[in-house]
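2 proteins. here.
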Amino acid sequence: MVPTLEEIFERLDVYRTVWTGRYERLQMLDAMWGEAVEQKTNPDHEEFLTQRRELQRASDTIDSVVQRDLLGQGLRFPAGGLENGILDFPTTLEGRWVYLCWRRGEVQISHWHELEGGFRGRQELTDENTIAMGRLDEDIPDDSGLDFPPVS
């Protein structure tokens, strides 16, 4: 699973680089022309339209990959997760929901945290945790505390 996650983040890196380049060029056009760049008579108007269109295309592609390949697979981005390469995986431990936590570059999923603990609350997985997590003989706890966005 980790090699697949790394590959997904590598694809996202490419799209984010494209997005950043388009955004920076739009910022330059705005600094040079302000709202005048939106006028058809402006010499940079066509470039402005192209950059804006390509920025939206890059945003849509990033959103699509995140929705399909990550959120759609039951994974979760915590705040700053895309930028910092952090993903959470919901599981149960001793009758409550917790998150397994992976950070880009880690060779395996080796940490977990409470729902409210976040990255700072990460703890190393122990053999005891691993055995107790996701047990099917427990009642599934209420999942209303999981903060997953709706999948469209």
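next one coming up
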Amino acid sequence: MSGPTIQPTALYRFYDAEGDLLYVGVTGNLASRFSDHRRMSPWWAHADRHEVEWLPHWSAALQAERRAIRDEAPRWNSVFNTRRAAKRPTTGKETTT
């Protein structure tokens, strides 16, 4: 009997031209995930470069992602990012309540 397959998982970061961190994520399939971001993420047009770090398995990547979001405060992540709201640029479509 064999156990579950452990596959390397990518932790990735996208930066704008000024070097500000836009987004941190994890995936097992970079091409597919980057394609999703290209089609759906509002920050994609601002992305200038990315970095990828391979971790041994999904749970290690999730832990690293959580730490990176908490410690590095990427502009467009919302989960685990207590400082995000102050750093996200306005689009002119926001409403005040």
